Amino acid sequence: MKRSGLFSVLFLGLAACGPTGSPAPETTVSAPEAPAMAPDGAVAETTPPEPLLAASLTGLNPRQVQEKMGEPTLVRRDGHVQVMLFEKADCVLEVVFYEPATDAWFEARTINARTAKGMAADADTCLARQLPSGRWHNEH
Fold first, then answer.
1. Residue-wise pLDDT tens digits, 98-140
2. I need a labelling partner for 103 at 20 to 30 A (CA). Which of 11, 38, 60, 137 fits?
3. C-alpha gyration radius of the chain
4. Is residue 95 a contact partner of residue 65, using CB atoms and an 8 Å limit?
5. What is the CATH number of the domain that holds 74?
6. What is the domain range of residue 66?
């Protein structure tokens, strides 16, 4: 076979391995979003809101929980235990704090949720009902 014939066969062979006659998929590149502007014209920093997870309250002291949740509907203290209730018509979120030692701060250790009728409920769902804005109280 002549040299030019060999190149033709190789070229056709490689062409057969390539894409078929269908066009290449289109790729789109979206433009970056413009930064939010503050009223004075300065660029405002935006940070995504902290996710609303009941477990996020674990380890916090009562003041920190109130900063995130707002005022509880009930606070009860019994010795080394303190309980805060956050109630809505369809669910009750209960945050139980323990004081590890007499001179230590209370710390949230247990998060429970129940329906208004006392049946167990999902704590994250109940928390979302307590904060319908989808943000912690102190993120407004």
1. 998 878 889 999 999 999 899 999 999 999 999 989 899 888 6
2. 137
3. 30
4. yes
5. 3.10.450
6. 54-134
